[in-house]
Amino acid sequence: MIEVDYYYSSSMKWFIDFAESLSKATGENVIVQGNRLALPCGLAEGRYEFYELTDGLSILITDCVFFKELQLHRQAVPGNDHYKILFNVSNVPLIINKQSGRIVNISSSLAEAVFFSSHTTEVSLYPGIGKQLRTVQLIFHRSWAISHLLKNIAPLSVTRMQQFANYEPMQFTTNLDLKSNDLVEEALSAEAPAYTLPHYLEGCAIELVALFFDNIIEEELGEERIISDDAMRIIQLKEQIENNIEDPTPTMDEAAKICLMSRTRFAVMFKTLYNSNYATYFLNMRMSKAAELLASKLSVTDVGHKIGYSNIGHFAKVFKEHFGVTPKLFQKDNLG
């Protein structure tokens, strides 16, 4: 077995250093080309890519097969500034040797398919020979998590949140929920142009981290979890918009400002709360209301005005795109 020593961080430097360590250990010439490892055919084939998404957040995507037996030994680094979440959707479990010496399988099913660790802990991963390694790994700095996701939504009564807050070494496995599984599959199959792919992956990564922390909080608190102030502001805004449907819907930037948070945080939290993008949610709401009003014999013009459209031609166009028929034809069909 070939042991490859490495460390990790949220910057590209670790990825370049990892390629050098892989070359030295295996005797193969592994180099970084753009965001991916150029893997020699004697060592592996497939996709091994790393992207710096934003300051303090990165993603490592692997969809490859190794032809040599490797032990990827992650060395402990002093401090607990960086953390990694590994999501395994391979067809086989991943064997991991934890710092405690305990060997665990990161499941190929939803149960125990997620592995969380801080970079002060040592761990070894064995990808196996001839097995398709399909994982998404998120690497983030603790300052990024605190400023973007954890403020006001992470009760310190949760044991693992206490450990995080106190800079304690952390290693544990947890379940992969269906929503996160879908996001991992999206990241693995993403085929966006090179200049837009990092932005697409950033959205997936932020939502995955948010769901991860949400799930570990739910595991311990269950229904006793207290709704955060940020969540309450979003709920109140949503109800206000629904109660004043004749007024234009605030833009995403306006809504985030009203709720006293960044656009990214607002988008993630809104989707977590309502399982829908902000714009899509209110479009569906307005169109459902329009259909209800049309069936009550109101004119197309009156309906358009009542759901916030000053331009009735635009309302008719949006309605047809949504339902496949014009408002007039919809009304005729539903009134008989």
From TrEMBL:
<feature type="domain" description="HTH araC/xylS-type">
    <location>
        <begin position="235"/>
        <end position="333"/>
    </location>
</feature>
<dbReference type="InterPro" id="IPR053142">
    <property type="entry name" value="PchR_regulatory_protein"/>
</dbReference>
<keyword id="KW-0805">Transcription regulation</keyword>
<dbReference type="InterPro" id="IPR018060">
    <property type="entry name" value="HTH_AraC"/>
</dbReference>
<keyword id="KW-0804">Transcription</keyword>
<dbReference type="InterPro" id="IPR018062">
    <property type="entry name" value="HTH_AraC-typ_CS"/>
</dbReference>
<dbReference type="InterPro" id="IPR020449">
    <property type="entry name" value="Tscrpt_reg_AraC-type_HTH"/>
</dbReference>
<dbReference type="InterPro" id="IPR009057">
    <property type="entry name" value="Homeodomain-like_sf"/>
</dbReference>
<protein>
    <submittedName>
        <fullName>AraC family transcriptional regulator</fullName>
    </submittedName>
</protein>
<dbReference type="Pfam" id="PF12833">
    <property type="entry name" value="HTH_18"/>
</dbReference>
<keyword id="KW-0238">DNA-binding</keyword>
